[in-house]
Amino acid sequence: MRSFKAADEDALLKAILQESATEVLVFDAETLRIIQANPAATRNLQHPLKALQKLTPLDFLAPENGRAFNTLITLLRTGKRRRTALNVQCRRRDGTRYPVEARLFCSSDHDRPVFICIANDVSQREASRQALAHSASDLRAIVAHIPGMAYQVLRTPDGSTSLRYVSEQSAQLLGIKAPALRANPERFFKLIMEEDKADYLAHLAAADGVHMSFNWEGRIWMKAWKDVKWVNIRVSQRAAADGLIWDGIMLNVTKSRLAEAEIRRSRAQLAALAAHVDSVREQERLHLAREVHDDLGGNLTAIKIGLSWLMRHLPPGELNLYKRTAYLDNVTNQTIDATHRIASSLRPPVLDFGIVSAIEWQLEHFGHNTDIACEFSATDQDIPLSPDVAIAVFRIVQEALTNVAKHAHATRVKVALARQADSLLLTVSDNGRGIQPGHSENNGHSFGLLGMSERAAALGGELTVLPAKRHGTQVSLRIPLPDAAK
Predict the structure, then answer these.
(1) How many folded domains does the chain comprise?
(2) Mean pLDDT, to the nearest integer, of 187-206?
(3) Quick one: 72 and 110 in the same domain?
(4) Measured between alpha carbons, how far is 286 from 275 in angstroms, rounded to an integer?
(5) Given this model, what pLDDT does residue 202 score?
(6) N or C end of the chain, less CB within 10 A?
(7) Digit-coded pLDDT (tens) for 228-272
(8) Strands 373-378 and 161-166, sheet pairing
(9) Strand pairing class (412-419; 373-378)
(10) Is residue 268 part of a domain?
(11) Are 375 and 457 in a shared domain?
């Protein structure tokens, strides 16, 4: 193997300089005139080698860097430094700039002393640094405008935990400045109201004792402000080089909580009002039914008796008078039937015999009026219910059957009533067209379904309207039964 000669070494170094992305410039130590430059330097400076050989480094350095460059050159010439480094801005031929990290040193291995400059274009790195700085600035701006407190919890591999970051909003939200909260995270726990501490401690135990590392919502007591706040904590966990990190945000949700409570209170008041209106309406129906049955029915019966007496005592041969009296007697019979029908629609007397008999009566009339086959089953022939519960269940069945007649196009309807351990279950199912999306009578907004739901809610129960197993619609009602009804 032949030895590696000096000529070979020179050829290798030349090849390296030719292919290197690092700029290399050689310039005279006295005149600073550029003697040699590698392709990377000519490419970045946008000058061919011959043009560069007519220039000095000062010709393409930014003006603000010229003084620092001359100072370093002087130090190198006097031998006070053997090599030095500097960060400067270079100007290309087209006037654009780019940052470089340069190293300068003096070489005496030539006929005359020369300076060698090795420079690296750091524009991409600088752009990344600026982008990162802008990102951090943008992130701080975003965090500053969040209506809550942002924070980071760190758990190192040795098990120790700390609040690595807390935004300045902690003072506004918790009344604790960020440095104080970072130093003692347990101060947050002391703010939690006694009624909510048990829930927080349960979450804390599940999180291995790491405060604020879990999703939680509860109340805190601001003693200085004499105010109760609802706070909502939402966190996400990620692994990092120094351990586990929980990125969290704590929001003040007091207004939304109070709004929810007000909505619930309003709904409860509306439900109570609806129940009261239904109760009053049923009482009025009962009163009217009795008035119609007793007073109007009694008067009509008296008229009927009088007409019968009159017909028996008419003079013989008064055929026209007899026909007129018979006509009035027939009208009286029809009016008596109408009176009974009106009284029954206001409040069916059959309810006095129990809910099972009332539903059977209702189905009999429904089938007669609609020609829809009806089927009824009950676990007990006698299911004792209070008058309010009985009339509510009867009205729900009545409304469900009305919906079947109006909308279902069914040929069969089944009603089932079952008394269970602690509740009453009613189902009304048909074989009609089923729930049609987009139709008001099926989307929960119709007054009929709304009325049934309100009646169920007033009884402490629940009403559901779903497609039947095979075809059609099924209305299900489940209401709790008091001990006396079991």
Answers:
(1) 4
(2) 92
(3) yes
(4) 16
(5) 93
(6) N
(7) 999 999 999 999 888 899 999 999 999 888 888 888 888 778 777
(8) unpaired
(9) parallel
(10) yes
(11) yes
